[in-house]
Amino acid sequence: MNLSDPIAYLSLMVFLPALGALVLAFFPRGREDAIKFTALGFTIFTFMLTLGMLMEDAGGVNFEAGAAEMQNLFSAAWIPSFGIQYLMGLDGISFPLVVLTAFLSVLAMVASWPITKHVKAYCILFLLLETGMIGVFMALDFFLFYVFWEVMLLPMYFLIGVWGGPRKEYAAIKFFLYTLVGSVLMLIAILMLYFNSDLTLLNSQQLADAGIFAVAAEGGNPQTVEQAYQAWLASDDDTARRFQEIQAETNPARRRQLHTFNILALQQMGQLENSPFSQNVWLGRSIQWWAFLLLLIGFIIKVPSVPLHTWLPDAHVEAPTPISMILAGVLLKMGGYGIIRICYPICPAAAYELAYVVCGIGVVSMVWGAFAALAQNDFKRMVAYSSVSHMGYVVLGLGVWSLGMWTAGPGGSATYNADYWKMGVTGAMYQMIAHGISSAGMFFCVGVLYDRVHHRNLNEFGGIFGRMPVYAGMAVAIFFAGLGLPGLCGFIGEVFVVLSVWKYSQLLAVVSAAVVILTAGYILWAIQRVYLGAEYRGPHGEALTPMTVREMAVAIPLVVFAIVFGVYPPSLLNYMQPSIDRQVETLAAWTERYDADREALQNTLNNDQEQVAAK
Amino acid sequence: MDASALPTLLAIAWLTPLASFTVIVLLGKSLGPHGKYAGYISVGAILVSTVMSLVALFGAWLPNHPLADASHHGASYEAGAHGSSSPNAHSGDSHADGRAADAHAADAHAADEAHESEKPAYYGDWYALGQWGKLKLTIGYYIDALTVTMFSMVSLIAACVHVYALGYMHDELHDPYVDHEVHVHDGGHLHRPGRFHRFFQYLSLFSFSMLGLVIAGNVAMVFVFWELVGICSYFLIGFYIERQSASNAANKAFITNRVGDFGMLIGMMALWASLGTFAFGDLTTPDGQTELGIFSRLRTAENDHRLVPPPEMVAEGERTFASTETTGDGGSNAGHWLLFIAGVGIFCGCVGKSAQFPLHVWLPDAMEGPTPVSALVHSATMVAAGVYLVGRFYPAFSPEALLVIAVVGCITLTIAATIAITAVDIKRVLAYSTVSQLGYMMLSLGLGGWAAGLFHLVTHAFFKSLLFLCSGSVIHAVHSNDMREMGGLRRKMPITAYTMLVGCLAIIGAGIPLTAFGLSGYYSKDAIVEQAWSFAETNKGAYWLLLAMPVVGAAMTAFYMFRLWYMTFAGKPRNHHRYDHAHESPAVMTRPLLLLAFFAIAVGWTVPLTNLSVTNLLHQAEPAGIAATSHGVLLPSLTVPAEALSHAPEIKFKAGLAAFGAAMTGLLAATVIYLWNTLNPAEIRQTFQPVYRLLWNKWYFDELYSAALIRPTMALGRRIAAFDRAVIDELIHGLAWLSRGVSKVFGVLFDQTVVDGTVNTFADWTWDFGLLLRRLQTGSVRQYVLFIVAGTLVLFVAVSTVQWLAYS
After folding, report:
1. Per the CB < 8 Å rule, is B312 touching A426?
2. Are A485 and A563 in contact (CB under 8 A)?
3. Do A382 and A306 contact (CB within 8 A), yes or no?
4. Largest CA distance in chain B
5. Do B357 and B412 contact (CB within 8 A), yes or no?
6. Which H or E run contains A89?
7. Which residues are A74's β-sheet partners?
């Protein structure tokens, strides 16, 4: 296997955990430590593969910082008769999330050591889950994306439902049904988009960008796009053959469409001037309006945003610690990822129209989650609600479609300046990574205590600082990262988002700024009730032993990254920023065309009315 | 030393405490016996900072920027007032030549003389937190005379406090340390390991954060360190984490500050959306372009450095307020409104940090922290950060925003002074005194007295840290904070008593009236009263209250400070047990007291034979354009008089006498009541029972906030959580129930009739067919063979027929 080929390297990244699951299936029962170490080994190896992309000359493929476009894009026919490709690639938006996933999987596996029930099944499901998660972030074919999305769902259901707490069945079914509803809505939207897509609307450059055919970039004589295009047409590729057939059809009435699931191609189509998704279907709304709405609901269930968030506290409270870490650290990010990768670029007109709804959902979630967190007495529930609040920043930041159109240009003209918008999206992306670290850390900290005293009642803690000083110190650092303290990772994302919002809406900006008070309130109050105080008066006080080496191996990396990302954001932004800028600039340019068209249309209408009135 | 060394010197001064913090965090208790060396590391780090700051001041700043006599008690008031037309010099690192400050070019009008000067400042970026097009959030520095002064002041006081803390926190070296204020479940006191190293770890982190706040080159970086000093304060107030009162106070401090930060964020957003920059200074990029900072954008040289909202701000303001209301000169005032929001927003942050009304409630509670912390964090430095930021951000405050600042300062100084009169906890008296003095600074800044306010910041830092360390020495000796249990202690601890007397005299502004001789507070407080006088004379009307309150406040200050001193050190011991055990503190604690006492006396003086004085240094940092008289736009009747006008002899005369008279009145009243015992305090309390109760309960702010804010917030939180459970979840359950119901109905209607019916029908048919077949089932093998053959034949014919049909 040639690892310098993206198809091999990326496939290995995705399927290595699944391979691990397969290997584990042949392990005899009773060898629990061996099973755990093997599973850990597979997660570590997967993580090393993701890191290997950062290193040049590591033998594999590279991820280049500073490049905006999709990297290591490859495609292979999968189900050609429906235009389904095995298409994957990475850019600055997905790559950090993949690394985060692999990283948290390692830590969560280490945190899984206390699991003693059906260890083999647990590890198998855990590894399948990892394959699903990494696959979701790398898939660029909508069908493939959906498959990974569902692959992730089932292991999660069992991991909560079998290894969970007292009300695990309820929580698991709730999680499953919520997510399933989201999946179904997403499937409808996918089919709507698929049946209205048409590859033949794209030119050769767009097709190349979408990975429909590959342009051989290396070698002595680099191919031009046009050459590659011609070579593709001349090939016996099934899609190419049908592409030519349809193009050759001169009678518009008999002309068919070449449907595709290719997300990159769908993005191109969505942003075309005469987008195939702009036709009205129902209630005077266009296809993309409905698709956007369905996709958005699907994704904000995952985020989760108010009012579709109530599965999260239950799922977290019942899930075992490592699964909570994965759930908060990675699964919630898929919602945000879906919005930025799918909703916005494929359905820009709908997104533009509904931007305020998206931002509003974000702000409401921020406030709602913070208030609800203030009222919780269950430590884990409190942290779960803090996730609702913190993920609200993500939705808000993604939504700020502010183009600074009010910035006075020379001569009083309006200019489309997307800088504030870029800032908001950057903040949202940063917040996703930061929250991945801080929330996983917070759930782990809760788990460390729960493993010892077997309860999570905030009112029965106290005095932990005296009993477990090292643990308490790290826990406080992680909680402060969640609080958004400068110098720790939570601050950067929050401040980027909050500062960018005013340009879009002053009202939302003021409300979102107010959340800093509530956040400080619930986090400090929790710290006070758990870690401070004279002595621990709850049950099982004798079990409060100092942190073990294994537990430190989980906590220390989280603390270190919380500090690094808080102090020096370029460490992450160098990879993320170019792709974000590119996407926002593309959409800003699209908006400019769109507004100009609408203005022209409005002018025509006005002129008509004036003429009618004149008559 | 070349001026270009300044960023490096100050960066070393700034980062050394961070290194100390890191070392102590990682090694902690293993540093010497019980972590004792942690203290030395921390002290060493802050001494390095102090030396570096002083080298920066005397070695790099002053040689390159010679001081002019910008006249504090001098007579050049005529030379004050109109906007100077010189550019704000600077930037980059290379060419600030710093021609300072004393060319007074005469203007046509007598009182409107231009203050021709170039204000040297150095601005640069270290790295960017994020960058989007022209928008840039950076970590950088802005160094001018104010920065250098603050660095010296902060590091010097911090060094004194660090050394003092080596002695004061000595108990924490014991293992186990017994905390007598905490009872555990078996009825005894709490025994815990000593936390000497933790204390110094936090002190180092605090020093780092505070110096970072001062060196910050932009508002965003100020906000970063703003929060960091907040969290250090949280750790230090809550240092005795086992005490419920301490952790409550720590939470209260941080959350109250966050309320202020909420306003500050709004101010920052307004600026960010309209100007797109947070930078204080102008930056020349390597490719030769100039990026203008906030101040240069708001006060351009073309406008004579007057505050005029630039077009982008007007546009953003118009969008924000959807208003096109016009001012007298035909322009829109939306830009001014936005400027007002930005100014008041930033000031909200300062209200939180500097404990101004209505967010002053946290500071007295913050006295739960160890006393060195109270001295360093809650009197001299962190709480001064708010005043510092107002001073730093001054060019961007519109006259209306300044009025808000003045009014808030005025209310604060009055309320806090009244509460201090009745308090009996020695540290709380000082805490309210701090709040009150911070109010003076805000008032001064708000009335246009930029230099006076910041001067008071510096003098107050010295004498208030002195006062706090003295009170710490007393508490260390008698193990109580309650002044009712003290008395007569001057005989037991003379150094503490007389250094504290110096502090008291300094804070009440003791000096020889109408001369240039007095303790440090004399200069700064008189300057504030002079500015208030000048403001009141210019504006008339109800603005006279802004003069009356500080004068009355001066009387109250003298009263409560001497009440404190008399109750503690004079008279007869009220608690003999505590008196007998009292002793003077060790040298490690008293030497910092002596040093600070020296500064409390002398920091206001001009070094003989030179122009070196804090005022002159501050005048060197006075931003371009703020020396001029300015007029309100939204409030046209408002005039903020130039600071130089307050140096007019007739104002100086009246203000000086008023301030002196007020202080003497307060001093006399305290002496009559608490030293000579001519009047009985208990009788006075009885006579003014309702007033006394109001003051004793601190004007009921805590109760009000609890009832109006905290409890409703918690209730709303519970409602929202309940809504999730009772409404959203129940809705989900309802849906689940409904779909189960629907499937049941389907079960009955569809499955049982249609599906089951079909199946049953088939079953019936099968049954009937079976019955039919049974008749054929005769048991005869021959018959069976016959059927098989016939069946095969039928099948063969059928298949052949279909094939024939298909292919024909």
Report:
1. no
2. no
3. no
4. 145
5. yes
6. strand A84-90
7. A88
The confidence score (pLDDT) of residue A208 equals 85
Task: List chain B residues with pLDDT less than 70.
Answer: 69-118, 322-332, 751, 772-789, 791-793, 796, 803-808
- Amino acid occupying residue B523: Y
Arithmetic mean of pLDDT, A329-356: 92
The Cα-based distances of B564 to B16, B428, B660 in angstroms read: 38, 11, 20
In degrees, to the nearest 5, what angle opens at C-alpha A386 toward C-alphas A385 and A391? 100
Which residues in chain B are closer than 8 Å to A378, comparing Cβ atoms?
none
- Contacts (Cβ under 8 Å, ≥6 apart) of B107: B82, B113, B114
- Cβ of A499 within 8 Å of Cβ of B729? The answer is no
Chain B CB within 8 Å of residue A181 CB: no
- Nearest chain A alpha carbon to B270: A502
Let me know if residue B462 belongs to a domain: yes
In a domain, B565, yes or no: yes
- Report how far residue B466's alpha carbon sits from residue B380's, in angstroms, rounded to the nearest whole number: 9
User: Which region among A84-98, A117-131, A306-320, B303-317 has the lowest average model confidence (pLDDT)?
Assistant: B303-317
**Tens of pLDDT along B258-287?**
999 999 999 999 999 888 889 998 888 778
What pLDDT is stored for residue B776 in this prediction? 61
Whole-number pLDDT of residue B22:
94
A199: amino acid identity, one letter: L
The two tokens of residue B307 are 């505050």
Spatial contact of A183 and A292, defined as CB atoms under 8 Å apart: no
Closest CA relative to residue B229, chosen from B261, B258, B199, B205:
B205
As for how many domains chain B has, the answer is: 1
Q: Which of residues 495-554 of A touch B (CB under 8 A)?
A: 495-496, 498-499, 501-503, 506, 509-510, 513-514, 516-518, 520-521, 524-525, 528, 531-535, 537
d(CA B219, nearest CA chain A) in Å: 12
**Chain B residues 109-138 with a CB less than 8 Å from chain A:** 127-130, 132-135, 137
CA dihedral (A341, A345, A347, A349) positive or negative: positive
Chain B CB contacts of A514 under 8 Å are 262
Determine the pLDDT at residue A220.
54
Q: How far apart are CA A526 and CA A514, in angstroms?
A: 19
Model confidence pLDDT, tens digit, residues B503-519 = 999 999 888 887 778 88
pLDDT in tens, A401-445: 877 655 444 444 556 788 899 999 999 999 999 999 999 999 999
Residue B566 inside a domain? The answer is yes
Q: Which residue of B has its CA nearest to A537?
A: B185
Alpha helices in B358-449 (DSSP H): 362-365, 371-375, 382-392, 399-422, 426-446
Cα-based distances in Å from A362 to A303, A305, A386, A515, B775: 10, 7, 13, 12, 77
Residue found by looking up tokens 């129209």 in the block: A353
Q: Which residues contact B20 (CB under 8 A, 6 or more apart)?
A: B41, B42, B44, B45, B46, B200, B204
What count of residues does chain A have? 615
Q: Please compute Rg for chain A using Cα positions.
A: 25
Please state, in angstroms and rounded to a whole number, the distance separating the CA atoms of residues A469 and A485.
Answer: 21
Name the residue range of residue B574's domain. Answer: 398-605+648-696
In contact, A316 and A322? CB cutoff 8 Å: no
pLDDT: which is higher, A402 or A375? A375
At A556, list the tokens. Answer: 């220390």
Omega cis (within 30) before A307: yes
The model's confidence at residue A81, banded by pLDDT at 50, 70 and 90, is confident
Domain annotation covers residue B194: no
B266: chain A residues, CB-CB within 8 Å: 509-510, 513
* Position A566, amino acid: G
Residue A133: the pLDDT is 95
The pair of three-digit structure tokens given for residue B655, joined into one six-digit string: 């203000």
**What is chain B's alpha carbon radius of gyration, rounded to the nearest angstrom?**
37
